[in-house]
Automatic annotation (TrEMBL):
<dbReference type="Pfam" id="PF01551">
    <property type="entry name" value="Peptidase_M23"/>
</dbReference>
<feature type="domain" description="M23ase beta-sheet core">
    <location>
        <begin position="84"/>
        <end position="188"/>
    </location>
</feature>
<protein>
    <recommendedName>
        <fullName>M23ase beta-sheet core domain-containing protein</fullName>
    </recommendedName>
</protein>
<dbReference type="GO" id="GO:0004222">
    <property type="term" value="F:metalloendopeptidase activity"/>
</dbReference>
<dbReference type="InterPro" id="IPR011055">
    <property type="entry name" value="Dup_hybrid_motif"/>
</dbReference>
<dbReference type="InterPro" id="IPR016047">
    <property type="entry name" value="M23ase_b-sheet_dom"/>
</dbReference>
<dbReference type="InterPro" id="IPR050570">
    <property type="entry name" value="Cell_wall_metabolism_enzyme"/>
</dbReference>
Length: 317
């Protein structure tokens, strides 16, 4: 497991998020990880009405709101994609093994019709391969666009990390990817009043728009460690066109991106969330690989969520 750190970075929007009162339960990244540790997310959950139906607004988990370049699939992946999206899309090679993110039992395993119409006006590739797992805590994880065969049947118990199926592009998909979606209190797909929550939480400095639908607060749901590593669930990288992987750095690897001084329009960002047991004072240490001309500056956003769900952001440059 290897930590991803800042490299060739000037005011790049990569944030460190700190939580002190959560109950994360998602233990595994929901796919067999590659040698470079993790596939990026190209399409994030839209916190403004995630129904797979566009309404002209896209709200990202960090509070950034987009009104332009948000239409599937003509939007910049990893930044403002896309209006109405109800989950997080990990793009990966076809037939990559898909893993159960946590212990649970299967409540749905079938090929079923998807959203109607498909986002972006594309034609569906037949029915969508879907598996839904209940996790004994009001949460359901949904795995979409799977290829046959589906490895599990309704009523079966699964353990975190079990292979439940294989990545594909069935249903409303223009390329192979896993649509990973978390629903709360109900596994039903509702395009009017969705049950969707974002497992990456909400870190904006205003009230989460998703709460206006069913009153659900978005919380960070991934189990993590004190040391955040790019092969673990406590870290997630979002797609950018110029991420470069290197076999040097903490535990043998690192990533670089071109310098940027435009925070709002940055095309490269990621999120770290360490597992903090209790409210206290913490020192945050960042490992920087000994690479010549590594960086001219770095921007860290440290966000603390209190027990009432209010976020406080501190920016360190």
């Amino acid at each position: 497991m290897n930590v991803v750190r800042y490299q060739f970075l000037f005011l790049l929007t990569i944030s460190i998020k700190i939580i002190v009162a959560q109950t994360p339960f998602l233990e595994f990244i929901p796919y067999a990880t590659p040698e470079f540790q993790q596939y990026s997310i190209r399409h994030h959950t839209d916190h403004n009405y995630p129904t797979q139906t566009p309404n002209g607004v896209n709200a990202r988990f960090d509070g950034n709101i987009f009104y332009n370049n948000i239409v599937a699939f003509n939007c910049p992946p990893g930044v403002s994609c896309y209006d109405g999206h109800a989950g997080n899309d990990y793009h990966m090679p076809i037939n990559t093994p898909i893993l159960a993110a946590a212990d649970g039992y299967v409540v749905w395993s079938a090929f079923s019709p998807g959203a109607d119409p498909c986002p972006g006006g594309i034609e569906p590739n037949g029915d969508t391969g879907i598996i839904i797992i209940y996790h004994y805590n009001d949460y359901f994880t949904c795995y979409l666009h799977l290829n046959p065969p589906l490895n599990v049947a309704v009523g079966e118990t699964v353990a975190a990390g079990d292979t439940i199926g294989f990545n594909g592009m069935t249903g409303c998909a223009s390329s192979p990817h896993l649509h990973f979606e978390v629903r709360k209190e109900n596994h039903f797909f509702d395009q009017e009043l969705p049950w969707v929550v974002d497992p990456y939480g909400w870190w904006g400095d205003y009230d989460d728009p998703i709460k206006s639908i069913r009153g659900f607060a978005n919380e960070w749901l991934w189990m993590s460690d004190w040391v955040i590593d790019d092969g673990k669930a406590g870290f997630q990288r979002f797609y950018g066109p110029n991420w470069v992987y290197h076999n040097i750095g903490y535990d043998g690897d690192s990533w670089t991106v071109p310098a940027s001084n435009d925070v709002e329009n940055s095309a490269h960002y990621a999120i770290w969330v360490p597992d903090l047991i209790d409210s206290s004072e913490y020192n945050i240490d960042v490992y920087t690989p000994t690479i010549p001309d590594l960086t001219s500056a770095a921007r860290y956003e440290i966000i603390i969520k209190d027990t009432s769900g209010i976020n406080t952001k501190t920016i360190v440059v």
